[in-house]
Amino acid sequence: MGKSWLRDYIVKRLLYAVIIAWGILTITFILVRVGPSSPADKYLANIAARGGDPAQVTAAVEARYGLDKPIYVQYFNYLGNLFRGNWGWSFSTSMPVIELIKTHWIYSFQLILLSSIFAAVLGILIGIYSAVKQYTKTDYAFTFMSFIGISIPTFWLGIMLILVFSVKLGLFKTYYDTSLPLFSLDNLKALILPVITLGTGMLAGYVRYTRSAMLDNLKKAFVTTARAKGLPERTVIGKHVFRNALLPLVTIIMFDLGSIVFGGAYLTEIIFGIPGLGQISFNAIFANDYPVVVAVTLIGTFMVLLVNLATDISYTYLDPRIRYG
Amino acid sequence: MVDRTLDTLKAIGQRLSNSTRLVDYYWQRTKRNKLAIFGLAFIVFLILLAVIGPFFTTDPTATNFDEIELPPVGFTTQQSTYNIRTEQLTTKEISGTWTHPLGTDSKGSDMMAMIVSGARVSLLVGLIATGIAIILGTIIGVLSAYLGGWADNALMRFTDVMMTFPFFLLLVLIVFIFGPSLAIIVLVIGLTGWTGAARMIRSESLSLRTREFVVASKALGARDTRVVFRHLIPNVASLIIVMATLSIPGVILAEAALSFIGLGDPTKSSWGIILQSGWHTIESAWWVAVEPGIMLFLTVLAFNFLGDGLRDAFDPKSNV
């Protein structure tokens, strides 16, 4: 008893996620199909140079990829292939796209995970401190710095860090060393600059959101009550104010993943030469390797979808008052 | 349609300026925020730079291989040249000159001229793309709130799908598919960036819809279009202004980031394109990457300061 609404709720969210996923796949399919380029393009220059007939080549390649079939057949083939894990062939790296992603996702994952932890822990602590000491010099200083943090372009910050700490001071390598084992101190050291690059914008955002969420709750009556009954200030701030500020914060942190973190990680990987998904997409753009660019976008989007789902479900634990019908 | 648009503009204008006292009031509230005024001043400076700057600088595309990688005024660097005939490596010290106050890049193009023409590109992209996104967002938000029912449901589910796409990854995909030209970049940012605005304007309009003056106007027999253009839109105008100001920096950064990864319009020297070329010469000519980055940073900072100040000024609950 009692928890059956939770099961219903989760089922409902799952169904909803499936609908959104279908929408994403459909939009991507339409984009690729209405785009001006065809998979035959990369062979054309070669064939034309040898005096072949371009029209014949295009027809042959399109038949090979099933592009001569009616559009709805193509659409169902596309969906079916994606579900069977057949994500296409990356000709620039000569391996199936799914294999390429399996070998590279871990680099993106470690970067995003470390940056998120760095930004969330530091951001929330500074935000709480700033709110408790509202209108003091430290508060103003932190607020001003957070403005700078959200305004600084990620890729420029990365280049500046390389310029100062790697080129001028020689403290770090200018390029990420892929031969390092993943779980080692050297690897952690190599990730310091990338984590600062990706984490700064997020950190500044979290400081602002935490501060304003804390301030919203600090003025509430239950805080006065908690103080009046003689609770120590630590408990008032930690248990009463912060617990209530947490919900909007979780929403924002999860929302950031889609809008800021993936874009930032993409650029950070390129600047530091980290071989994650952003880097393989970047290389694929120059090689005109279609399936890889599409796959990276789809993976990022599905990650956001899953995280949104997890956020919705975690709400029911963070705020026991929430009951979804 | 034109009549109606003019009518709406007039209504917005009236809300803000019919009573000069209201404008005065908002101006007073904004003025108290020093950072917002700094932001406004910088934006005005930037607009002037973009509009009249190119008439005073040299051609940004002109190359001069006798003057490559000159540092900015006040800086000196070591430059090594290899003479093929004498097989000797000579290193000489060169300092910046006033002919090229911000130095030159690896092709000898004047950095000052490139930065100025980049300002034009970045501002144009920022303003036009944000304009498209905000207009689309307003239309979808107001329609969704006003129509309700299945139309609202369909529009909001579509918004959810669009919001799930990570913004930058979607931009990369579309620009990759349709090819990098400035027009496509602007259009794509505009056509994908409306989701946040649509949601916010929808929720604002939903609460406005039940307010007395809207109900009264309907009871007096006003047509739907009149209610929408005369009452709903003018009342979300302040929200729209704040959202536009705060989304311009994101758009400028998105264009710069696209240019940076090689999906920019190669015929326009936008700040992102300069930054990309500076990234490759970071060890020999740091200023090529530093200068456009500082401009980007200050521009984004200025719009954030102004947007924040405006939001506080328009918010009746905040006492600035």
Describe the protein's architecture and organization.
- The complex is a heterodimer of chains A (325) and B (320).
- By secondary structure, chain A is mainly alpha-helical.
- Chain A folds into two domains: 4-83, no CATH class; 98-318, Orthogonal Bundle (MetI-like fold).
- Helix content of chain A is 77%, strand content 1%.
- In chain A, strands 1-2 form a two-stranded antiparallel ribbon.
- The radius of gyration of chain A is 25 Å and the shape is globular.
- The two termini of chain A are 15 Å apart.
- The mean pLDDT of chain A is 83.
- Chain B has 320 residues and is mainly α.
- Chain B contains twelve helices and two strands.
- Chain B is elongated and about 95 Å long.
- Chain B starts with a helix and ends in a 6-residue tail after the last helix.
- The interface between A and B is large, with 47 and 44 residues.
Major β-sheet annotation of chain A:
2 strands, antiparallel
How many helices of chain A? The count is 13
Number of strands of chain B: 2
CATH topology of the largest domain in chain A: MetI-like fold
- Oligomeric grouping of the chains: heterodimer
Q: Describe the strand arrangement of the main beta sheet of chain A, using strand numbers.
A: 1-2
Helical fraction of chain B equals over 70%
Number of domains of chain A: 2
Shape verdict of chain A: globular
Give the N-to-C terminal Cα separation of chain B: 39 Å
Number of helices of chain B: 12
Low-confidence stretches of chain B: none
Strand-residue proportion of chain B: 5-15%
| Beta strand count of chain A | 2
Structural class of chain A: mainly alpha
User: What's the Cα radius of gyration of chain A?
Assistant: 25 Å
- Determine the fraction of residues in helical runs of chain A and give it as a percent range: over 70%
Shape of chain B: elongated
